[in-house]
Amino acid sequence: MEYKLFGRTGVYVSPLVLGCMMFGQKTDLKDTCKIVDYAIGEGINFLDTADVYGGGASEEFVGEALERSSKRNEVFLATKVNGRMSEEPNDIGTSRHHIIEGCEASLRRLKTDHIDLYQLHRPNPHIAIDETLFALDDLITSGKIRYAGSSNFGSWQVVESLWASEKLGKARFVSEQSPFNLADRRAEREHTQMCQTYSVAFIPWSPLAAGGLTGKYTRTAQQASGTRFGDETDPGKMKRFSDGVMDIAEGLVPIAETYNATVAQIALAWVAAQPGVTAPIAGPRTLDQFKDNLGALDVNLTQEDFDKIDQLAPPGTNVADYYEASFTPNAHRF
What fold characterizes domain 4-327? Predict the structure, then answer.
């Protein structure tokens, strides 16, 4: 496996990240352990989760899986803080109070003495960035986290944080995690260029557009139950599925057939090959899904392929109301 530099840290990470959002929710502990063991065995050394996934269950499952495998020291372990974790008024956000408390809780759930990458899950316009940076810097100094990163920040918010870090002499964000896929290419307008300019690692989440670009969905009014788009009662998910997404997925079929690959592998390979991308995050529910995701690493798209794909999904555009908070100021809501 060809590992990639993680921004300017000097750390090498696998070109695909194992996203752990499903663990502790739709994926039970037994299957979680199977997926984690398989991923590490195949050379994947980057795992990403968040405290809010499953109300802490994802972190607990990841911690248990790593303890059983005795492979904790072989992985670059990332988690996030910001989401509400209880009804207590301060158990949310990026205040110093919540960051310190959240880190201690994540360490316990993950069964580890340090977190390699601790990310702010969302920006908080009403909390001064220096308040947040001082807390993260203290966690780095104490050895509880190795690096700090952002997630779902706008480009200006990342640059603001870098300016503040330099001015204050505090640790800077080394990475940014935002949505980027063929159904939503808005990150290309300035986000990927920003990451390249400031040597910030870019780890796109949902490179398969929440499953819309896997090729398993059809233009029926109701998708199969148990699938991500099979529950029309969840408007947050359904807004990511549209005829435009289906047009792209169907347009990828001829390219996939050329490589004897799946539509998902082509869509994932495209994201991984884009300038500025460090490693996309694949969030499987099953081991078979993850095996399919890994197959994308064997797909080497040609310039002709890229040109065809640009016709399906022009650069900088989006065909679904996928996720806007990354690029919209004051988007956080309690």
Answer: TIM Barrel (3.20.20)
